[in-house]
Amino acid sequence: MTSPVDIVAAAVSAADAPTFAPRRISQGYSWAEIPRWHDGKFWFSDMYTSTLKTLDEDGKATVIVDASSRAANTDVHIHLGGFGWLPDGRLIVNSMHEQLVLVHNGGDPDDLAVYADLSQFAIKAINDMVVDSDGRAYITQLGFNIFEGEEPIVSDMIVVEPDATVHAPDVPPLNCGNGIAISADGTEVYVAEVMAQKITVIDRALDGSLSNSREFAALPFLPDGICLDEDGGVWAALPGAGHIARFTESGVTDAVPLPLEDGIGSACILGGPDRSTLYITAGYEVFDFDKSVREALGGIWVADVKYRGGQTRP
Fold first, then answer.
1. Which of 29, 96, 154, 265 has its CB 3.0 to 4.6 Å from that of 125, i.e. a possible disulfide?
2. CA atoms of 313 and 290, how far apart (whole Å)
3. What is the pTM for the complete model shown?
4. Cα–Cα distance between 81 and 98 in angstroms, integer?
5. Is the pLDDT confidence value at 144 over 90?
6. pLDDT at 30 over 90
């Protein structure tokens, strides 16, 4: 049987796509995920330690948000997923298994409160998030317990309006919705559908409503976290396939090979002063939470690419 690494490598080769070499800038994390570029800093979720962190220029991490104390009051795992910023500067973040969006008011790392309860709309764990310029959060959910081997089912995207009310938009459900992003002009939302092996694009109106969901690109392997560039490309981490690749409607155009022995690429974001540095989060153990924390092998990689993130979100 052909391996995922070989399948994606063959797609990159067939497209004659240029590749960019990555370099590791930091290591020592559990399952590193949800990369963001905000206020001149790189942010990410050190997921199984219940923290959000930033990196300085020397690759040293600082804990900005710490939700670990919430474990004393619940019997579910406290894993911080998608996050973004409201217009007033406050940070909101998904507590995946609690099915809650928490708000951090910028004080102590554990200064967290419930912003929105998604349990009425979430089937299992909620997942990634992108926040629009009005403070509206678009949130994906897994739909099934991937960690315990449940059969995949489709599930709705969830929207948290600027007034923190929650609803499911009138678009088709997603097949394990994961990475999510908004185009620079705000007119389109892009979503990675893991089990469908595709990127879906959805039209977005000025009032934030969604319509006209359709396939943007079929992928050679399962996508995880995504980001956009200002030229209309979608960068997707392909965990287990040893690549982060850029796609347009015509297929793969560029790639960053990341050998599995260096970590499983989980997500990516264009950051840096001109947003032309592709930051990549990577880990080694996604299913055994305790082992992931104990071994702390997760890392952050960067590659200099020829595209810019511009005003795309996140």
1. 96
2. 32
3. 0.97
4. 11
5. no
6. yes
**Which uninterrupted H or E stretch holds 286?**
none
| Structure letter (DSSP) for residue 152 | P
Cis peptide before 314 (omega within 30 of 0): yes
Residue 131 contacts residue 137 (beta carbons within 8 Å): yes
Pick from 108, 118, 111: nearest CA to 81: 118
Helix or strand or coil: residue 85?
strand
Q: Per residue in 89-134, pLDDT tens?
A: 999 999 999 999 999 988 899 999 999 999 999 999 999 999 999 9
Cα separation, 151 vs 132, whole angstroms? 32
Do the Cβ atoms of 243 and 259 come closer than 8 Å?
Answer: no
Query: Could you tell me if 154 and 174 are in contact, meaning their C-beta atoms sit under 8 angstroms apart?
Result: yes
Host H or E run for residue 279: strand 277-283
The tokens 């409607």 sit on which residue?
Answer: 249
Phi and psi at residue 132, to the nearest 5°: -85, 180
DSSP per position, 243-272: EEEEEETTEEEEEEE--GGG-EEEEEEEET
Place of tokens 């995920």: 33
- pLDDT at residue 169 greater than cutoff 80: yes
3 state SS of 200: strand
- Helix-strand-coil percent breakdown of the chain, rounded to 5? 10, 45, 45
